[in-house]
Input
Amino acid sequence: MLAAAAASAVRDLSPDLRFGRVVAVRGALIEVEGLSGAAQIGARVRIEGSEEPVEAEVTGLDRGIAHCLPFSDPQGITSGARADLKAGRFSLRPCEAWLGRMIDGLGRPVDGKGVLPRGEVPRPIKAAPPPAAARTRVGAKIETGVRALDIFAPLCVGQRLGLFAGSGVGKSVLLSMLARWTECDVAVIGLIGERGREVQEFVEDDLGEEGLARSVVVVATSDEPALMRRQAAWTTLAVAEHFRAQGLRVLCLMDSVTRFAMAQREIGLASGEPPATKGYTPTVFAELPRLLERAGPGRPGEGSITGLFTVLVDGDDHNEPVADAVRGILDGHVVMSRRIADRGRYPAIDVLKSVSRTLPAAHTPEQNVLRNEAKRALATYGDMEEMIRLGAYKEGTREEVDRAIHLAPAIENLLKQGKSDQGRADESFAALEAILAPEHQGDA
Output
């Protein structure tokens, strides 16, 4: 009796160190037994490897077996390898000294500039968004330096916009323009699933020394495991939340949310989740709002996170599942068109399909009049464009079409920008007003 009671008491103790053993490795999934009653979803595990230990995370539990996914290549892990359960959840300690640095999804430096200093306050990588009733409201309009956005889809402090584009239409260049020109105190840039060769090009050529000096860049390239790509997205928001808590205006750029969703899909499928819409698992659509809602205004006394999240639309289908889900979460969407890019107008923003949910309040009444008039002219020209190009439209048939024919090329020319051609909102509206003036129409 005494022995049984003692054994029961020992089992009820919370040990300082709990470990199990690897029983199977199936692709990227590592199965560990011996952690029953101790391992939780999201817990960290350190697994012995033939060369060096492998960090992993518990992503599923099944009848005493913990399903773990590694943050690095699982090669070298053998059956029976020891797996130590680490105490606590993963957290970061960001500080101002992180500005100008590049880190990975675990907060480790990848730029060769030495060890990262540690701040005083730990910041959980996966955190809940601020309570809806405790958040401040979206603030005033800020200039992005991109004329198409400043006129037709303005960005406000604490707003979250999605950039929807197919591959090869200038999305990365637009991001670099926004990173350098948008008014903010700090920029946190997450390159999720990016091509390895493009990371250094983006930092050196597009971002530049001036842009990097006020930025923290979080990198997880496409060859890294799905868990690291997902972690990098969470780390991007965690670093941004740290600076928001300091009362700063933070610009958070993430390229791309689609690759975060793909990483979550890989994790879900490896953990045994059933595929749903186009192979995406249910947790993908649960994790998207948890990630994106972390951006935005903070509590009273805090700063804000103004978010710009790119969505890589599959086959230029803007209604595919991830794009459709993200569009319903964010405060507006900017559509980049391959048709516009093909005719050489960059940034290839389709202003007729782009929406900012801060309108019309973000603009003055006078600016809204100009914006609406310009959109009507572009819409009218777009409706008749095919007939005009074929010569089937005879000038004088419809007054509004004649006017659009004169106005549309000048408006398109105003929206054209190189990556070193920074726009000013007041100058952009003055130029648009001149284009729409009756005397301009007569000169055209």
Observations:
- Residues 365-390 form the longest helix (26 residues).
- The chain has a mean pLDDT of 89.
- Residues 150 and 425 are 6 Å apart (CA to CA).
- The chain is about 35% helix and 20% strand.
